[in-house]
Design a protein that fits this description.
Length: 331
């Protein structure tokens, strides 16, 4: 691929480039829509290391001053959910390795031959790589994938319990199907992340660092020049590095973005059912929730539980991962 071809393969993220850049594929180049599959029930997967949530009514979304209008966080609406299970932790490199070993699966980053890497992790090599237009902190790195997070010179040493990254929505969905599970809906994810609290900014309340304590892995310092890593990490942390929320869910805020099953729309919820909502029937990008270690209030405070962003189903970066859900069986 020559320099011109490589440049045309990139574009900034559809919602905000700090969240994660986007792979631009034919379906989006020609403006066509991508049909959505019917949501399936998943009842066969093991519930080990999953939390059972009984569901119920909660207030979804945000109308506070922190809300980002273009993202469609508002209005706050009452949503009713059935019970479900959710993974206690994001899927780790070790778990994803088990999936690949058993199935021979190759991720889309491996098939594309490249993925996006944050320039601050390239040890001075960033100038060697192509970046999406206007987003100098993301680099298109040949050979970057889930096994080689920053490219061929890197590996998973001491990262076994860190969340797997460089996984597209399609990769995450394939893993979930193999595990007898599914990806959570956006409503399920937000219900779980809130930990039983109503209309709070974070899973633990409204103070980001209560009593000066860091409770999630996000950026400290001046983005993108310098991360002071006051929370202890400047890249994905082990999934149990911070305390769980009141539901017993770890790493639900920051660390890595988490894919949801829904197609993204900033206004679909204005006319959608508020009982077990599953998002639009079609779209071009999938919802991501939770924020990542690259989020900072100065440019992207999407590590709030109500915040949302999106990316195309084939996109992958060093700050996108996932966790799985499973339906509750009765009788």
């Amino acid at each position: 691929m020559n320099q011109s071809d490589r440049s045309r393969a990139l574009r900034p993220a559809s919602v905000h480039p700090c969240c994660a850049p986007t792979k631009l594929r034919a379906q989006i180049l020609d403006g066509s829509r991508i049909a959505a599959a019917t949501r399936r029930r998943a009842t066969t997967g093991s519930v080990q290391d999953m939390v059972r949530l009984e569901g119920g009514r909660f207030l979804m979304g945000s109308e506070g001053q922190e809300a980002i209008p273009a993202d469609g966080e508002a209005p706050v609406r009452a949503v009713l959910l059935d019970g479900f299970y959710l993974d206690r932790y994001p899927v780790t490199n070790q778990q994803f390795q088990e999936f690949v070993t058993e199935t021979g699966y190759r991720t889309e980053a491996e098939r594309f031959g490249w993925s996006f890497v944050f320039e601050g992790h390239l040890r001075g090599r960033a100038a060697l790589f192509v970046c999406p237009p206007g987003v100098r902190w993301w680099c298109k790195v040949d050979g970057a994938d889930w096994r080689q997070p920053e490219g061929p010179e890197t590996d998973l040493s001491e990262r076994e319990t860190c969340p797997v990254v460089h996984v597209s929505w399609n990769d995450a969905n394939a893993y979930a199907e193999w595990a007898g599970k599914r990806l959570p809906t956006e409503a399920e994810w937000e219900f779980a992340a809130r930990g039983g609290l109503e209309q709070k900014l974070y899973p633990w309340g409204d103070d980001l660092t209560p009593a000066g304590r860091h409770l999630c892995n996000i950026w400290q310092g001046v983005f993108p020049e310098h991360d002071t890593a006051e929370d202890g990490y400047s890249r994905p942390s082990p999934v149990d590095a911070f305390p769980p929320n009141a539901h017993g869910l770890y790493s639900i805020t920051g660390n890595v973005w988490e894919w949801c099953s829904d197609w993204f729309s900033p206004d679909y919820h204005l006319m959608a059912s508020n009982v077990n909502p599953v998002g639009p029937l079609e779209g071009q990008a999938k919802v991501m929730k939770g924020g990542s270690y690259l989020c900072h209030a100065s440019y992207c405070n999407r590590y709030r539980v109500a915040a949302r962003t999106s990316n195309t189903p084939d996109s992958s970066t060093t700050n996108i991962g996932f966790r799985c859900a499973r339906d509750v069986t009765h009788g």
